């Protein structure tokens, strides 16, 4: 249901670009028209119609678990959630804080590996986050590097992020139609917010990583 410059949740959120996509959802950068400082830009995760059906049937429980997580270290908070009705069906939308790329993106190093200081800090954060989930009787069943996201550390303020977005607008890859003769829509390139980390980040900088 998301397209460039369209609105969600009664025009509260405006879609600015596509951050990424998975099998059961896509994630978009959204401008929060009612947001406070540092919460003007958020990530809107929009589930597919099938994933929404599975949530409603109790087969998926992501929304249920997210509503149980409050202020915790290294765990993404649910800022808002709602249903978007579209001609093809309903979509659950989960609004969370804006993150950057995944830890997996750093595996593009020449050796396809990370230095010990990076691995040590990432694992420390991961174990801390999992321990907090387990304390709430929640088991994460899809722990992998693709699901470990770096925090948005380069553009901490809304002003800095706005300047970056102005200098790097949404990029279009092409057009498509949902059905022959139907309405066409733009296919957007994945454009996650960058971070300052590289595969050979120094030991000092590695200690400052948050995911």
Automatic annotation (TrEMBL):
This is Protein kinase domain-containing protein. ATP binds at residue 45. Keywords: ATP-binding, Kinase, Nucleotide-binding, Serine/threonine-protein kinase, Transferase. The lineage of its organism: Eukaryota, Fungi, Dikarya, Basidiomycota, Agaricomycotina. Belongs to the protein kinase superfamily. GO terms for biological process: regulation of RNA splicing. Pfam families: Pkinase (PF00069). PANTHER family: SERINE/THREONINE-PROTEIN KINASE DOA-RELATED (PTHR45646), SERINE_THREONINE-PROTEIN KINASE DOA (PTHR45646:SF11). Residues 13-211 form the Protein kinase domain. GO terms for cellular component: nucleus. GO terms for molecular function: ATP binding; protein serine/threonine kinase activity. SUPFAM superfamilies: Protein kinase-like (PK-like) (SSF56112). InterPro entries: CLK_kinases, Kinase-like_dom_sf, Prot_kinase_dom, Protein_kinase_ATP_BS, Ser/Thr_kinase_AS.
């Amino acid at each position: 249901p998301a397209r460039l410059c369209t609105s969600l949740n009664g025009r509260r959120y405006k879609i600015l670009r596509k951050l990424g996509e998975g099998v059961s959802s896509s994630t978009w950068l959204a401008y929060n028209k009612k947001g406070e400082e540092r919460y003007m830009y958020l990530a809107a995760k929009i589930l597919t119609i099938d994933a929404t059906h599975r949530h409603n049937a109790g087969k998926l429980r992501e929304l249920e678990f997210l509503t149980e997580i409050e202020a915790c270290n290294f765990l993404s908070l649910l800022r808002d959630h709602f249903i978007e009705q579209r001609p093809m069906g309903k979509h659950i939308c989960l609004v969370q804080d804006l993150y950057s790329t995944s830890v997996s993106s750093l595996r593009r190093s020449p050796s396809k590996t990370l230095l010990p200081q990076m691995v040590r800090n990432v694992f420390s954060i991961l174990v801390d986050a999992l321990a907090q989930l387990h304390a709430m009787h929640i088991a994460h069943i899809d722990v992998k590097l693709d699901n470990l996201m770096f925090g948005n550390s380069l553009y901490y303020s809304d002003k800095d992020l706005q300047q970056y977005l102005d200098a790097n607008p949404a990029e279009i890859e092409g057009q498509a139609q949902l059905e022959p003769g139907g309405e066409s829509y733009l296919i957007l390139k994945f454009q996650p917010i960058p971070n300052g980390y590289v595969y050979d980040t120094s030991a000092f900088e590695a200690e400052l990583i948050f995911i």
